[in-house]
Design goal:
277 residues, alpha+beta, Glutaredoxin, five-stranded mixed sheet, two-stranded antiparallel ribbon, 7 helices, 13 strands, 39% helix, globular, disordered N terminus
Length: 277
């Protein structure tokens, strides 16, 4: 038993090192197309709803014109997601992560907080936004869900204005016909002030609940020191194309495995030692 645990620990550690190397290489030699793709935190900044002159307006999933500021007049914190509705992977992972988390907290969408999901693709239409909304609300069975989670589309200037204000830097890749972007969500106060950034494709329910609670009280969290950014694409030199990778997530998971197995190894060593005495 002890021998098997030692072997498993060594294998996990080897995999951990293997996963770690590409992360460093990616950071040091990020392809030109991925440069500038990032999330720059602007905690405490209040959204300027008239940044372009007139009110920032979008189209909701029902085809109605809506002002972005209207969602901030209800006295509730806002969970903002910037995605696009035909994203092949990462956007769905982010929205799935949001859904999984909100299903586990006692606050409900439409009651204690609202979600605004905005497509960064100006070609997305309300019909597609409605399908997305129906898909997610069918898995979230709580009162007020329909009036609390909003799926918006809009024109490029308005979309870029919101993205720039929250620090979401993305770019369209015409070769792949997809958007390059990172995985993150934004928590805002009822007044539209950026309160917290959460990264990745899964969000701990207690973290999300705390972030919403802080935002509801108008609080601004400290800057996120350890950011784990997942990109929608990664350049694969062997294929001369972008492919989805989550090396950082793998690194974290394998690190946890190493720690767990090391603890198991220590326990088995102590138990075997006790038997021999």
């Amino acid at each position: 038993m002890l021998k098997h645990a030692l072997t498993l620990t060594f294998c996990s550690f080897t995999l951990f090192l293997a996963a770690r190397t590409p992360v460093s290489a990616q950071a040091a030699e990020r392809p030109e197309a991925l440069k500038g793709i990032d999330v720059t935190e602007s905690l405490g900044r209040t959204l300027n709803f008239t940044a372009l002159g007139p009110e920032l307006s979008f189209v909701n999933e029902r085809g109605a014109n809506v002002q972005l500021s209207s969602y901030f007049r209800k006295g509730k914190p806002i969970l903002l997601t910037l995605v696009y509705y035909e994203c092949p992977m990462l956007c769905s992972l982010v929205l799935n992560g949001v859904l999984d988390s909100i299903k586990q907290i006692d606050w409900s969408v439409g009651q204690q907080f609202e979600i605004v999901t905005l497509s960064i693709n100006p070609k997305d239409k309300p019909e597609l936004a409605l399908k997305k909304k129906q898909n997610y609300l069918s898995r979230y069975e709580r009162t007020g869900r329909d009036s609390g989670w909003h799926f918006l589309t809009g024109s490029e200037p308005e979309i870029q204005s919101v993205a720039a204000q929250v620090g979401f830097k993305y770019r369209y890749d015409p070769a792949e016909k997809q958007y390059l972007h990172a995985a993150s969500i934004f928590i805002l106060t009822p007044e539209g002030k950026l309160s917290r950034y959460l990264y990745g494709t899964s969000f701990k329910p207690q973290d999300l609940k705390l972030a919403l609670l802080e935002a509801s009280e108008g609080k601004v969290a400290p800057s996120t020191i350890d950011r784990v950014l997942l990109f929608c694409f990664h350049f694969d030199p062997s294929k001369n194309s972008y492919t989805f990778r989550v090396w950082r997530a793998v690194q974290i998971v394998l690190c946890i495995q190493v720690l767990v197995l090391a603890g198991l190894l220590g326990y088995l060593w102590k138990r075997d030692r006790a038997k021999t005495q």
